Amino acid sequence: MAAKLSKRRRVTIGGLVVAVAAIASLLFLRGRSGPNNVLTLYGNVDIREVQVAFDASDRIARMFVQEGDFVRPGELLAELDARRYTASANQARADVVQERANVAKAKADIASAMATRANAARISARDARLLKKGTVSEEQAQTDESALRVATANLAAAQSELALAEAALKSKEAALALAEVNLASTRLYAHSYGVIEDRILEPGDMASPSVPAFTMALTNPLWVRAYVPETYMARIYLGMKASITTDSYPGKVFRGWVGYISPTAEFTPKSVEAPELRTRLVYEVRVYACNPRNELRLGMPATVALALNQAVPPANQINGLGCGEQNHAGGHSEIH
């Protein structure tokens, strides 16, 4: 009787061990793929940053934005002391005016030389006829023919002067265009929507193309950098829709889509909030996010949920994914 009871206990304990192991395996798999075949990824919000610098060199006269300011394309950020560039542009304009006058004079000289040659040609032709009749001396005919040759040479010289004047005018106009570009380069404009992160220089500092004046964070595109285990690579694809959540905005879901999958495997970075993945080979993915109110910020931890049972979109629709019209620092269209 005791032997049978002991055997039953061993069977019961063995069954419990198997059940516990099965439950643990199920919980592990659910923690990875989530309920209803959903893959959960952990990562951080990432954006692009640019170092904004002047195209010209001089001292900064004024700056119009501070750290944290939203800026739009074409918005004036700062300007240099432009006196030197203004003087150069004014001199270039004066040179162009002078060369245009030289071109006008050369054209007038050509008109005069053409008239003189036409008259000399008429007289020389008349003398040639009269010489045959004997009503004009050969000396006079030779004199008039010589005058025609001189008039022809003068016309050619005037035409050469016009060509030189026109070439000089083109050179001065090019110099003026360069001077105006240099003058315009003393004003620094935003090239896209963004947020001023750092005002590196201040009025009075010497600026140059190699010294950034601002660091600007672009508000679009914005993505979550996450990492996918190798075992799931066959189940994700470009254009896959995603849901993004953060601890900063509990209960709020940001729409997104998979926009980049790395072709190279790597070990999971230590910053990822999934300890069981840190020693495994993974692939970086970028899940682009719709951020209409600029709530997602650089470095913010985020959780990405991917439903693995989605239908694969046609290839010609992947580039059309986006957020439509959203207010990135003032309401510009989403960059795909």
Count up the helices: 4
- SS-based structural class? alpha+beta
| CATH architectural group of the largest domain | Beta Barrel
Q: What name is given to the CATH topology of the largest domain?
A: Elongation Factor Tu (Ef-tu), domain 3
Brief account:
The chain has 336 residues and is of the alpha+beta class. Helix content is 40%, strand content 28%.
Task: Please tell me about this protein's structure.
With 336 residues, the protein is an alpha+beta fold. The protein has four helices and 14 strands. The protein has a six-stranded antiparallel β-barrel with strand order 1-8-11-10-9-12. The longest helix is centred in the first third of the chain and has 51 residues.
Q: Key features?
A:
single chain; 336 residues; alpha+beta; Elongation Factor Tu (Ef-tu), domain 3; OB fold (Dihydrolipoamide Acetyltransferase, E2P); elongated; disordered C terminus
What is the topological layout?
Elements: H1 2-33, E1 38-52, E2 58-63, E3 70-71, E4 76-80, H2 83-133, H3 138-184, E5 187-189, E6 194-199, E7 206-207, E8 214-229, E9 241-245, E10 254-267, E11 281-289, E12 301-307, H4 315-318, E13 325-326, E14 332-333
Antiparallel strand pairs: 1-8, 1-12, 2-4, 2-7, 3-6, 4-5, 6-8, 8-11, 9-10, 9-12, 10-11, 13-14
Helix pairs in contact: 2-3
